Amino acid sequence: MNLQRMVVMDLETTGNAPKKGDKIIQLSAVIIENGKIVDQFTSFLNPQQPIPVFIEELTGINHSIVKGAPLFKDIAPKIEKLVEGAIFVAHNVQFDLTFLQSELMESEVNPFSGPTIDTVELAKIILPTADSYKLSDLSEQFSFQHDRPHQADSDAMVTAELLLMFMDKIQKLPLMTLKKLSELAKDLRSDLDLLFDYFVQQKEKYVEELPVSLESYRGLVIGKNEQSSKVEAKECIHYPYTEKKKLQTLKQMDTFEKRTSQLEMMDNIYDSFKNGQHCMIEAGTGIGKSIAYLLPAAYHSYQSNKTVVVSTHTIQLQGQLLEKEIPTLKKLLPFSIMVSLLKGKSHYLNLYKFEQLLKEEDKQYDTVMTKMQILVWLLDTEAGDVDELNLSSGGKLFWNRLKHDGDLISNHKNPWIEWDFYTRAKRQASAANIVITNHSMLLTDVKTGGTTLPEYDYLIIDEAHHLEGVARRYLGRSLDFLSARFLMGQLGTLEQKQLFYKLDQLIHRHALSIPYHPFEVDSLIGNSFEELYEFFQLLGEVLRPMKMTHASHKKKISFHNSSGQKWKKPLLYSAERVYSSVREVEESLRKVVEHVMKYYPTLTHREKVFLQECHLFIKEWEELSTSLNQMILQEEEEEVVWLEGDIRSIPNSLELTTQPISVGKLLEELLYKRKQSIILTSATLTVEGSFSYFQDAIGLKNNVTSFQFLSPFAFKEKSKLLVPTDIPDIQSVSLEEYSEAIASHLIPIAEATKGRMLILFTSYEMLKMTYDLMKESGLLEDYILMAQGITGGSRQRLTKNFQRFEKAILFGTNSFWEGVDIPGDDLSCLVLVRLPFSSPEEPINKVKSQKLQQLGKNPFYSYSLPEAVIRFKQGVGRLLRRSSDRGVIIVFDRRIHTTRYGNAFLKSIPDIPVRQEPLEGMIDVIENWL
């Protein structure tokens, strides 16, 4: 490949479909010769058609800029000459090249016929852990000057700089890795194989020495495996009990601020560990909660040589602890400690499987791309954790074949055991003073009797308000149609040529003596598929007659006390047939695999990996029958079983779920009784200053103390809470009317706050209605409106985009009520559209309410209200994230003032001045305040 001349091009266009007449409005080409940028050609172009408003907003290019510009045909000969004999490069090359070819042919000039390089494709390979492959995000990550995103000259120059940086990184890759990348790249969409080939040829000219941080083994280059051991106390170091000593320790922090509550919280936790007590701590925003529990945990672990486990609910908090809080903690301590992160085994790459599947010829694009990403990632990763990778959805499917599923079947030695990521993570966790994990892993460990986490007696549960919900999910079960169909697709009949066919081929290939007939098992498999499909069809018939609520097509039906329903018997009979046929398949497959295992030493490595896949599949297939048995055939009185789905998509959307009504007794037996001391902390555990609701929900009654520390932020001076008086009562009007009233108020409020507004909803239907009304009004054309589930992107992506634009409005539901951190001027107005009560028709809520009534309690005051108050507190907590923040909270739900129970919400949040105003008065308050 001749790398002497490359042309990096970017185009701005009137749309994305040249076939429908869309035209180029700006073109820029950066010329690279011998690895250096030598020239740039840029021109606006007259499209001879109007430029859509959206394109004007995106690019800043309008009609007045292009009206005097040349037509494309005027510059076509120059472009033809420019790209002739060069490599054509673009960020998403297919888009730019398709437009260019269309315009060249229309101008009766030869289209480009040379090789192409797509820098998006290249970025995915060279930067497998990047959060985003958008040009603006990559330029920000590497601090490239990119003053005018979405203008061709700026975009083309940044793309050229990225290309040169990627080429430099490729040059530094080990030859062994490069050769594998070069081979795989032949199946990519752009001609990256030519690029990799070039560097392979360059590297082969001299003898390569690997850097000390890398080693090669069995054809792969991988980061060296560093061994680590537990830090044990070598001298007696006392915990800093006095305030003076604690302050001396904390003053080493870069952002030190004396907070008495933080000091008290440290002592509470240290004393709880020493006295073997459980402890509940509500720590308001700004206390410095993470350091307040990590410091005493480190001292206790160092002094006692015992592991302390820290469990979080979200990956974000895990990341924050590892990247920010732990390095800070290590600076504060007068001794060394070891901290490790441990996740479920399916998070970790199985190197033996990867080695074998790398040899498998599979030209499927996502599979090829994922293999290439992992080859580069192996040079840097210490954890081997899939969460580090940015995989496509197809890549995630391929990961299912690469993930760890425990040890190799049988006692045969894994050649990669010394490098195995999961084994390493478990070994590090066993040696660590502090092990960070998540609630899911914690509950899995509890459920399996302590087989995943290292032995521990001391536990800190952060984000503890989630413990009940996670415990219900992990101590329950679920079975959905798509997962069942995926399993059926994996297994397949002989005709479908999937796992069972491959197993049969392996047996024939080695002429193994197996006492079974393939057609017999094939018939069992086909029968089980038919029974499963029929069962889910019956479930669909149960759901269809249900009444629809509002605009939602999603329905739920509880199976609790449903024995009198006429649909129950046919469903039971169908479930029995499914259970029986699935068990027969499982037993047959198990026997076949056990027989094949006798010939294990004679099999190839790839066949051994395939047997592992079979082994894992049988476990997952067994889970299917167990779930069905426990949910339908053995209904427990203390569990709720329900069916949910979208009637527009039956059976695809169907899911059966079972959860315990109460998790208290289970947690008492499996967790509280077995641990010396558990600390449960969160910013939202109390209702009107009391922990009783939280205590009842999680069943923690004995040997427990509690402390509440209010946020040190000056809420009284920094915030106001406004309730509009001219909004209809939410329970007296339809969803449509309420959404219209909300939208008509939000538009002038948005103008008063100049955007910078987060609007929290409790239902997606209302969010969508309000968003559509505000968008269609045409009154907010200067504002960027972003909505969860509408404008696309994850919560993190939406939050990041919201912070990038000055006049932005963000609409969120459910997950946006907590964990969203938007400090400073980016957020100055928080809107809570309605009080966050859960639907009383939710199966778990319905049965809980019935149980409370049977006990003579009021379900609303004992359950619904406290749950809503805690959620409300989480929502309010989004506004002030730093001591310098200020802003206004608007609660549209007038029940906060018009009902007896409304006061419970106001009494549970910090002391914020509350005002009731009509819209006009509210606007005055906001404008004066902000």
Automatic annotation (TrEMBL):
PROSITE patterns: HELICASE_ATP_BIND_1 (PS51192), HELICASE_ATP_BIND_2 (PS51193), HELICASE_CTER (PS51194). It is an enzyme of class 3 (hydrolase). Residues 741-920 form the Helicase C-terminal domain. Coiled coil: none annotated. Its cofactor is [4Fe-4S] cluster. ATP binds at A283, G284, T285, G286, I287, G288, K289, S290. PANTHER family: DNA REPAIR DEAD HELICASE RAD3/XP-D SUBFAMILY MEMBER, REGULATOR OF TELOMERE ELONGATION HELICASE 1. Belongs to the helicase family. DinG subfamily. Type 2 sub-subfamily. This is 3'-5' exonuclease DinG.
